[in-house]
């Protein structure tokens, strides 16, 4: 089994990492390449996971795959909740988790979510897709199935490798 570096927990460093992972462009081909790179990397882990890449301006799905048998419909619920968090706050779910110290009641109260709190998740694995010269995020990558810090870090390490090898 392969390992991942532990992700940072201070929000300043998390934000810096997110801002450093900018694509020069992002197309359906990019989503396919990143999705396959994530799937290959996730095969190093025994737990099944779901990978989802979609555009921000719609529910247009560009990539969706599982790593192995054993995923559950609940994984797709987590994908939707993590995606919603990234779209609403424009940052990773790991950032939100650490900003609020994992306190879901505080999260719901701070943002006055009420009964809608269950539509969002502040667990690692949701990550914004940014493109140089484009304001805001253009899409969302979500991994669900490992421990939340691993869900986050596998996205970060895969994106670092992908982006750095194309510069």
Question: What do these coordinates show?
Answer:
There is one protein chain. This protein has six helices and five strands; from the N terminus they run H-E-H-E-E-H-H-H-E-E-H. It starts with 10 loop residues before the first helix and ends with a helix. Strand 4 (126-131) and strand 5 form a beta hairpin. It has a five-stranded mixed sheet with strand order 1-4-5-2-3. The longest helix has 17 residues, at 73-89. The chain has a single domain (11-164), classed as Beta-Lactamase (2-Layer Sandwich). It has 167 residues and is an alpha+beta fold. 44% of the residues lie in helices and 16% in strands. It comes from Lentinula lateritia. This is DUF336-domain-containing protein. It holds the Pfam family HbpS-like. InterPro entries: PduO/GlcC-like (IPR005624), PduO/GlcC-like_sf (IPR038084), YBR137W-like (IPR010371).
Question: Summarize this, please?
Answer:
This protein is of the alpha+beta class.
Question: Which key features would you list for this structure?
Answer:
single chain; 167 residues; alpha+beta; Beta-Lactamase; five-stranded mixed β-sheet; 16% strand
The coarse silhouette is globular
Strand order of the largest sheet: 1-4-5-2-3
Number of helices: 6
Q: What string gives the helices and strands in order? A: HEHEEHHHEEH
Can you tell me the CATH topology? Beta-Lactamase
Classify the beta-strand content into a percent band: 15-25%
Helix content: 40-55%
Which class of secondary structure composition applies to the elements? Answer: alpha+beta
Strands, count: 5
What is the mean pLDDT?
Answer: 96
Integer count of domains: 1
> What is the rounded distance between the termini?
29 Å
CATH class: Alpha Beta
Any idea what the radius of gyration is?
A: 15 Å
CATH homologous superfamily grouping: Haem-degrading domain
Protein name: DUF336-domain-containing protein
Pfam family, one: HbpS-like
């Amino acid at each position: 089994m392969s390992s991942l570096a532990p992700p940072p927990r201070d929000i300043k460093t998390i934000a810096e990492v997110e801002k450093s992972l900018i694509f020069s462009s992002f197309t359906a081909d990019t989503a396919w390449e990143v999705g396959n790179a994530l799937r290959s990397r996730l095969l190093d882990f025994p737990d099944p996971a779901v990978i989802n890449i979609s555009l921000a301006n719609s529910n247009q799905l560009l990539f969706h795959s599982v790593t192995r048998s054993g995923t559950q419909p609940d994984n797709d619920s987590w994908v939707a909740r993590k995606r919603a968090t990234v779209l609403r706050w424009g940052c990773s779910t790991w950032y939100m988790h650490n900003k609020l110290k994992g306190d879901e009641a505080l999260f719901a109260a701070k943002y006055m979510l009420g009964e809608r709190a269950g539509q969002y998740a502040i667990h690692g694995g949701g990550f914004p897709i940014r493109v140089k010269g484009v304001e805001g995020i253009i899409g969302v990558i979500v991994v669900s199935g490992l421990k939340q810090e691993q869900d986050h870090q596998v996205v970060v390490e895969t994106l670092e490798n992908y982006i750095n090898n194309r510069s």
